[in-house]
Amino acid sequence: MPAPQMPGLASGIDTKDIIRKLVEVEKAPITRLENNKKDLSDTTKALGELRKRTKTLQDALHAMASFEAAFEQKRLNSTPAGVVDGSVRKNAPPSRHTLQVMKLASNLSFASSPQSLRTKLPAAKLKIGATESEFAGGTLQSLREHLQKYHNKDITTKTVQIKEDESILIIDSVAQGEDALLKIEDPDGLLKSLGLLAVNSTPDFGKKDSKDKPKDEKDAKKEPEPKETTEKERWLIQPQQLEATSGAKGVPAEDKKSLAIADSSATLYKFLAGQNSEERRLTSISVAAMASLGDHEEDAAPDSLSDGVRENINIKGIELETYNITRTREKEIMKRADFGVVLKYGDKEERHKLSGLTGPQTFAVAKGLTGVEFYANGADIIFEPLELTYAVKPQPKVDLTENKEAKTPAEAEQRKIFPNLLRAAQNAELKIDGIQISRKSNSNLGDIIEGVSLNLLKTSQDNVETEILNDNDAAKKQVLAFVKAYNELLQFSDDVAKTAKIKEAGKYREMRAESGVLATNATIRQLVNGLKVHTSNAYPTNRDPHIRTLTQIGISTGAIGGKREEVIKGYLEVDEAKLAQMLAEHPAAVKELFAIDTNGDLRIDNGYAHVVENFLEPYTRFTRGLISEQIKSNAERVKQLDRDIKRQEEHVKSYETKLKTKFGYMESSVQKSKSTGTFLKQKLGGGDGR
């Protein structure tokens, strides 16, 4: 029976309004679920911010507990500035020197005679330095490309068009000083015909081979090499050093302490030049790996399969022989997963499987390691690069009594070999405390001032006064960065974990609205209380004046006699004058307050920064961390709420349809009754009156 087009027309009842109100009542659970979802979303957002701020504090502490600590960092002060600069090792002794830079080292630059763009050059054999090549012939541009391809370790090339149909070829040596005067052999005379050389073979320019020196002279000067020291550092994954070699590129964690590699993918971590050099050489790496959380599904299957003790059982008079059976089944994900690392040495590589291994694995590293490839097949894998171990060469001893005389010939002599000489090669020449010395480079001069890698920036006829000073500003910045991160974390915790006071019984909702979104969260209270305890503790120290607490270097929760309410909050205040004084007078003792090796194994194992950094680790960890697990749990609950909301919305929609149908039938019944009444009235009570 079709429902009326206009609800309530027959009954006179506003059925549309009744249906609307009934549906609103039925929608009440949806409102409650949406409110719960919003509360969870707000909680998740606050937890994410808490983890971020905690990580900022942990990073600031790590900077003071690792090799990045600047407490004993030194700097080179030069007056006037701009003539020299340099980096100073922490163990550099205090010293003052007077320098004068007369000449800077320069590389060799020479050009060809002008050549027509249409000139075809013949084939020729060439040898530059130790590299031989054969030019197949062609234009001047072809020769430039050939030299750039086969001799780019020794020279750089470019062509300059000087006229509409003429160009010149310019060759620059990569090296500077005496090393720029390469041995060049031109047996077919190609370079000579172009005006690049005046001879078919350049001379040795007076360079002496070590084998020409008397044996007694070499042995007399030979000294035993100083022993290398061992340094360890946390391996942090820098995104810019990652390169996908197959499949998807690995994704480093926000804290750079782990690397996620997708199934059937591999990513190469390339070491920078400073990360593995002759002076600081990698000797071993430490790494751990595990399958991603998404691959660890609960599996209640037994772990072994074997025959047990035989037993007899009687069932209704029938005796049967049975076995106790234990089943073994390897987890499928681990059965098919293959993951590990590949150590790259140029064209060679060394593969190490990590599948089947648990915990950190340490691999020895040979000389020349260029990168480490992380690979995963059969599962998504999370790698945790843990530690890099280095063998560090000590800074060479400075002996200025052995003057290194310039070996580069004068410009006039070089011009005899290179007719179109643009810039003559020359060594740098300088004086230090009145002693004249020569070096073949302008940068990284480590044998002039002990403990300093010196860079020559420009010449100066005036003396330059240099002094090695403690870089207290860098250490102060690290301490202030820690205090700022600490206070910001406590301020945020106070805001999100505050609890409103109960003003009146039965006002729970109002009180809840005034409270912070994490007011009932135990994790944040545990975090803040733990931080305050560690900050007030004393720590071991070895050096005078035995700085054991933060208050001794000017960091406290308030001045003596301050307001109790402010002190209880736990915010740190810094007496910058006292801090600067302690850093200037006792930098090593301040360093021990934050990080100290108490047992002599060359590993930091105590100190405020070390202890608190490790305390924060469970809170900042992205994999199975205290905060991360709550975020993950909230995400699952939000998904369930979305499903509940969708199911309730479908129920409300069905309920509304049923109501409209029922009220439609009611209207039809009323309409039919009215029609019947009108008909009966016309038949019985109306008509002609008989």
UniProtKB/TrEMBL annotation:
The annotated regions of Basic and acidic residues compositional bias extend over 205-235
Q: Where is this region: Disordered?
A: 203-253
Q: Where is the Flagellar hook-associated protein 2 N-terminal domain?
A: 11-107
| Coiled coil recorded as keyword | yes
Does Methyltransferase count among this protein's keywords? no
Q: Output the Pfam families linked to this UniProt entry.
A: FliD_C (PF07195), FliD_N (PF02465)
Tell me the GO BP annotations in alphabetical order.
bacterial-type flagellum-dependent cell motility; cell adhesion
Q: What keywords is this UniProt entry annotated with?
A: Bacterial flagellum, Cell projection, Cilium, Coiled coil, Flagellum, Periplasm
Q: Domain Flagellar hook-associated protein 2 C-terminal: where?
A: 425-674
Write down the superkingdom of origin. Answer: Bacteria
- Tell me which stretches of the chain form a coiled coil: 631-658
What subcellular compartments does it reside in?
Answer: Bacterial flagellum; Periplasm; Periplasmic flagellum
Q: Which GO terms describe its cellular component?
A: bacterial-type flagellum filament cap; bacterial-type flagellum hook; periplasmic flagellum
Protein purpose? Required for morphogenesis and for the elongation of the flagellar filament by facilitating polymerization of the flagellin monomers at the tip of growing filament. Forms a capping structure, which prevents flagellin subunits (transported through the central channel of the flagellum) from leaking out without polymerization at the distal end.
Q: Which family does it belong to?
A: Belongs to the FliD family.
PANTHER family named among the record's database cross-references: FLAGELLAR CAP/ASSEMBLY PROTEIN FLID (PTHR30288), FLAGELLAR HOOK-ASSOCIATED PROTEIN 2 (PTHR30288:SF0)
Quaternary structure, per UniProt, is: Homopentamer.
Descriptive protein name: Flagellar hook-associated protein 2
